[in-house]
Automatic annotation (TrEMBL):
The gene is ycf52. It comes from the Eukaryota. PANTHER family: ACYL-COA N-ACYLTRANSFERASE, GCN5-RELATED N-ACETYLTRANSFERASE 2, CHLOROPLASTIC. The keyword Nucleotide-binding does not apply. This is N-acetyltransferase domain-containing protein. Transmembrane segments: none annotated. InterPro entries: Acyl_CoA_acyltransferase (IPR016181), GNAT_dom (IPR000182), NSI-like (IPR045039). It comes from Polyneura bonnemaisonii. GO terms for molecular function: N-acetyltransferase activity. Residues 51-180 form the N-acetyltransferase domain. Keywords: Acyltransferase, Plastid, Transferase. One of its GO terms (cellular component) is cytoplasm.
Length: 180
């Protein structure tokens, strides 16, 4: 894990917390959609595997889909311990807005789990979630990780089935321990 930690660092800027993955591997913006008409605004949509993430913007994105708020300090720790982070941004007149996010953890060899997949409601139904998951899978496969898992709420299982995910064919059910 020490090797991967060398790619990550935090900085505080303008009283906002940023997370930055400074790896040069696959450090690029991928244009997903040019000139998308989103409720009268023309925006370009980019996916980035390595980018600055304003934690307050991430919190706003998660709020937009009704997720329970988590402490920013813990979010920073989760990002620091993630193997891969992917973001989707909209650009309108040089204004950048975080509209999608997902991350993966891994044992760096065999297994990875995708976490916290979120697309802003204004941009859902445009194929962005599919593009986000496909890019994460592509990146994980680049590192020769063959077993990719995720946890899905019942209402999104069909979405993930269309992307090749299946309910465990051996009938294994995840088990959880929660403090009382």
């Amino acid at each position: 894990m020490t090797f991967w930690k060398s790619f990550f660092y935090y900085k505080k800027q303008d009283k906002n917390y940023y997370y930055k993955n400074s790896s040069n591997i696959n450090n690029k913006n991928i244009l997903l959609i040019k000139n998308l008409n989103n409720t009268g605004n023309i925006v370009d949509i980019y996916l980035s595997i390595s980018n600055n993430i304003n934690l307050y913007d991430l919190e706003k994105l998660c709020d937009s889909v009704g997720w329970v708020r988590r402490p920013l300090k813990k979010i920073k720790i989760a990002l620091n311990n993630s193997f891969l982070i992917a973001c989707i941004f909209s650009y309108n007149n040089s204004q950048k807005k975080l509209i999608g996010f997902a991350r993966a953890t891994s044992d760096n060899s065999f297994n990875a789990t995708i976490w916290d997949v979120v697309i802003h409601p204004e941009f859902q139904g445009k194929g962005l979630g599919k593009a986000l998951i496909k890019q994460i899978i592509k990146q994980l496969r680049y590192y020769d990780i063959n077993t990719i898992t995720l946890f899905a709420d019942p209402q999104v299982i069909k979405f993930y089935n269309h992307l090749g995910f299946i309910v465990d064919p051996d009938g294994v059910k995840g088990m959880f321990w929660y403090p009382l």
